Every structure is written in structure tokens, then in C-alpha cells.
Amino acid sequence: MNIQNSFEKIDVNYDYKCQIIIIGDSTVGKTSLLFQYNNQPNPLKQVATVGIDYFTRDVNIEGKLIRTKIWDTAGQERFRSITDNFFKNANGIILVFDLNCRETFHNLKTWIQTIKLKVPNHNIKKILIGNKSDLKREVSTEEGLEFSKNFMFDYFETSVKQNINIHESINHLITNVYHTGELEKNTSNLLKDKKDKKGGCCK
Predict the structure, then answer these.
(1) What is the C-alpha to C-alpha distance for residues 17 and 177, in angstroms, rounded to an integer?
(2) Helix orientation angle between 166-179 and 30-37, rounded to the nearest 10 degrees
(3) How far is CA 71 from each of CA 53, 169, 199, rounded to the nearest angstrom?
(4) All structural domains of the chain with their residue ranges
């Protein structure tokens, strides 16, 4: 198994931990989306993710700092057994297809079946992203909206090249996950607060 860490944050002063998994066929642009979301330059020659990689970013949602880890999965069939192991711990899911490739749109149903089989929480928050909106498309906005409505996803169209809707879509998901009240609190932060309260007064 190949697990790599990109842009890890080491500051402990955050409030909650959030884990998101991003899935979809190979070459739909999952890794490029995450590079853009992390405000990092995208590699000129993007190679397919082998196994699984993860990106970490601290996101301020309604005054709370949320340490968000996004697992970037390989879309190739031979790595499905690896990525399945990460579904059960996810707080949210990003499903991506390529607006210029109808085959990746058709394959969404297969990915949805995987979610149903592998995710214990059937009410998990999720978004559908139609990527590469700056190129000539094979899938219309209406088709994307209809599909997302049928399967209860929030829908966004993004462009890495033009930096359109990337932060908005992922932050939308993190906000929805935060509102579920199911995120793990940062216990080290809670212990620090208790020590500060005890030591702040003279006797």
C-alpha cells in the first residue's frame, strides 16, 4: 500500500478533526482539485495516484478550526480493495467525474454502489463534482443536477485551470459535516483549555 502525506499541518490548536474521501475514475482530476484547494502549484505532468495519498488543511468554519484530512484515492480498478478500507472512517465524500468524458459520468452509478456497500453511515454528507468545466463538455449541467438530485448529492461544477468553485464546493461539504455534530474533538486542545483555566488565578 502506498500512503503519502501532502502539506501536513503540525499545529495542535484546532477544534475538530474531519476526514473526507475523494473518489471517482482515474484522470477525472481528483489530485489536481486538491492541489488547487491547498493553494499549491499543480505538477506540470500529473501522474495517476498509486494507492492512496492524503492532503491536510485547517479550515475555519463558523469560528471553529477544523483539521481536515482528504484521502485522495486511486481510480484504477486494481486499487479498489485498498480504498475500500478508508470509507468506514470518512465523515464526508467527494465524488468526481469529468464533464468532457461521458464514460466517467456513466461510471458514477458504480461508485455509488461502492458507497452503499462500504459506508456504514447512509446519511453521510457528500457532494458530486463535475470537473473540467472550462473544456468542451459531453455532460450538461442539467444532467449533472438531475443525477445529483436522484442520489441526494449536492452538485458543483469546477475548473482547476480557472480555479472555479473548488474552495466553495469542498468548504460547503466541510460545513455540512460540521453541522452534523459528529466530528471528533481535539482532546489535546481541551486539556490545554482546562490547564489554562486552573492556572489563571492567584490564591
Answers:
(1) 11
(2) 80
(3) 6, 16, 39
(4) 3-186
**What is the chain's length?**
203
Distance CA 156, CA 141 (A): 9
How is residue 180 written as a grid cell? 452534523
pTM, whole model, 2 decimals? 0.84
Alpha-helical runs (H) found in the chain: 30-37, 80-84, 102-106, 108-118, 141-150, 166-179, 187-198
Condensed to tens digits (0 to 9), the pLDDT of residues 13-57 reads 899 999 999 999 988 999 999 999 988 766 544 545 445 688 899
The CATH code for residues 3-186 is: 3.40.50.300
Burial grade of 84 (CB within 10 A; 0-12, 13-18, 19 or more): middle
Q: Which residue has the cell 480493495?
A: 81
Q: How far apart are CA 25 and CA 171, in angstroms?
A: 22
Q: Which tens digits make up the pLDDT trace of 119-132?
A: 888 899 999 999 99
